[in-house]
Design a protein that fits this description.
The protein has 2 helices and 4 strands. The two termini are 19 Å apart. The chain has 84 residues and is α+β, with helices and mostly antiparallel strands. It has helices at 9-24, 54-70; strands at 28-29, 35-36, 42-44, 76-78. The protein is elongated, with a radius of gyration of 15 Å. The chain is 39% helix and 12% strand.
Length: 84
Protein backbone atom coordinates (compact mmCIF):
# COMPACT_ATOMS: atom_id res chain seq x y z
CA UNK A 1 0.00 0.00 0.00
CA UNK A 2 1.12 3.51 -0.76
CA UNK A 3 -0.41 6.54 0.92
CA UNK A 4 -0.05 9.82 -0.97
CA UNK A 5 -0.81 12.63 1.46
CA UNK A 6 -2.41 15.79 0.07
CA UNK A 7 -2.60 14.28 -3.42
CA UNK A 8 -5.73 14.45 -5.54
CA UNK A 9 -7.07 11.50 -7.50
CA UNK A 10 -5.64 12.66 -10.84
CA UNK A 11 -2.17 13.21 -9.39
CA UNK A 12 -2.33 9.85 -7.59
CA UNK A 13 -3.31 8.22 -10.89
CA UNK A 14 -0.30 9.85 -12.58
CA UNK A 15 2.05 8.53 -9.87
CA UNK A 16 0.53 5.05 -10.15
CA UNK A 17 0.84 5.13 -13.94
CA UNK A 18 4.54 6.05 -13.76
CA UNK A 19 5.08 3.18 -11.31
CA UNK A 20 3.12 0.73 -13.50
CA UNK A 21 5.07 1.68 -16.61
CA UNK A 22 8.45 1.53 -14.86
CA UNK A 23 7.74 -2.03 -13.68
CA UNK A 24 6.50 -3.19 -17.09
CA UNK A 25 9.59 -2.06 -19.02
CA UNK A 26 12.17 -3.73 -16.76
CA UNK A 27 12.56 -7.49 -17.11
CA UNK A 28 13.51 -9.33 -13.92
CA UNK A 29 16.12 -12.11 -13.78
CA UNK A 30 14.99 -15.22 -11.95
CA UNK A 31 17.12 -17.95 -10.34
CA UNK A 32 18.17 -19.61 -13.60
CA UNK A 33 19.20 -16.28 -15.14
CA UNK A 34 16.18 -16.18 -17.41
CA UNK A 35 14.53 -12.79 -17.80
CA UNK A 36 10.79 -12.52 -17.27
CA UNK A 37 8.45 -9.61 -17.70
CA UNK A 38 6.26 -8.57 -14.81
CA UNK A 39 3.35 -6.18 -14.60
CA UNK A 40 1.26 -4.71 -11.81
CA UNK A 41 -2.40 -4.03 -11.30
CA UNK A 42 -3.23 -1.04 -9.09
CA UNK A 43 -6.37 -0.03 -7.23
CA UNK A 44 -6.82 3.56 -6.06
CA UNK A 45 -9.16 5.06 -3.51
CA UNK A 46 -9.40 8.61 -2.19
CA UNK A 47 -10.33 9.93 1.21
CA UNK A 48 -13.66 11.73 1.12
CA UNK A 49 -16.71 12.23 3.34
CA UNK A 50 -17.83 8.63 2.72
CA UNK A 51 -14.62 7.04 4.04
CA UNK A 52 -15.11 5.99 7.66
CA UNK A 53 -11.54 4.95 8.53
CA UNK A 54 -8.32 3.54 7.09
CA UNK A 55 -9.78 0.02 6.90
CA UNK A 56 -12.67 1.31 4.79
CA UNK A 57 -10.22 3.17 2.54
CA UNK A 58 -8.18 -0.02 2.07
CA UNK A 59 -11.31 -2.07 1.31
CA UNK A 60 -12.24 0.37 -1.43
CA UNK A 61 -8.72 0.31 -2.89
CA UNK A 62 -8.81 -3.49 -2.77
CA UNK A 63 -12.09 -3.55 -4.72
CA UNK A 64 -10.53 -1.28 -7.33
CA UNK A 65 -7.46 -3.56 -7.46
CA UNK A 66 -9.58 -6.61 -8.23
CA UNK A 67 -11.47 -4.60 -10.86
CA UNK A 68 -8.06 -3.87 -12.46
CA UNK A 69 -7.07 -7.54 -12.32
CA UNK A 70 -10.37 -8.58 -13.89
CA UNK A 71 -9.93 -5.97 -16.62
CA UNK A 72 -6.95 -7.72 -18.13
CA UNK A 73 -4.24 -6.86 -15.58
CA UNK A 74 -1.41 -4.34 -15.98
CA UNK A 75 -3.80 -1.45 -15.44
CA UNK A 76 -5.12 0.97 -12.84
CA UNK A 77 -8.66 1.34 -11.59
CA UNK A 78 -10.04 4.02 -9.27
CA UNK A 79 -12.76 3.12 -6.76
CA UNK A 80 -15.99 4.84 -7.64
CA UNK A 81 -19.16 4.30 -5.64
CA UNK A 82 -21.85 2.46 -7.57
CA UNK A 83 -19.32 1.41 -10.24
CA UNK A 84 -17.35 -1.17 -8.26
Amino acid sequence: AVLLVETGALDAYAVAERFRKSIAVRPVKIDNGKEVSITVSIGLSSVNDNVRDIDHLMQRADKALYKAKNSGKNCIRIYERDVI
